[in-house]
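thought: fold this chain, then report.
action: predict
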Amino acid sequence: MKKNVKILVIDDEPEFTADLKAALEAKDCRVVTASNSEQAQEMVHHEKPELIILGTIVPRGDAFRLHLWLKQSPSFNDLPLIVVDAPLEKRSINGWFMEEGLQLLAEDYASKPIDSSSLMPRIERLLEKAISRIKVLIVDDHAVLREGIRALLNLKRDIEVVGEAVDGQDAIEKVRRLLPDVVLMDIVMPVMNGLDATKHICKECPQTKVLILTQYDEQENMFVAKQVGAYGFIAKKVVSSDLIAGIRAVSAGRYFPRAFAYVSANW
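observation:
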């Protein structure tokens, strides 16, 4: 586990908090604690933790509302979150309602009784995922669009923009040098278009996944993207809503959008 990682533990049971704090500090983590929702929000703002463990707090429902506040906040929604619910026999006092559980947005869920030795592997797995970053190269001949995409990606902890390219030939050269995980590729560009560049990149650097940005017909581009070796495409008109999901999907070796998997399997 990476040393000096800051973890926020939110729970109103002193014994649980103390046991988990000791286990984390033994792994050279820095631990801050909160026992209610108000304290927790203040800690998130001021302490800037890298992972949150949300246990049981009263009144019932506060843990669920706090979890929603975290996951719906642009500043905190990519913080890894483990929810530790009340044991079944105490769930009516400070646990989650069933309808709340069905809206769970956290990366992991457990319920008490659970000891720190059982939680540690889950924490380590999430931290490892959180500190790894997806390296992205932005390729477009319009500087304003490149700047807008860079600004959006810079808000995400798991994404790092490693460079920009202004045309297809520039993209090929920078992929060779920077070895990005994902290339965001425009189609219509001078010198070399994005489709020709994608063919070269997919052949020379198969570990780099290309996500095409396009202004054209969605169905048509599924076939075009498949033919040149890309892992998917995003219409520029919906870049802001689909871009992060698309980057995360193709970096993990999944097609985007999901319908692209069908096209790739059948044509």
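thought: worth noting. Residues 11 and 60 are 13 Å apart (CA to CA).
final: tokens above.
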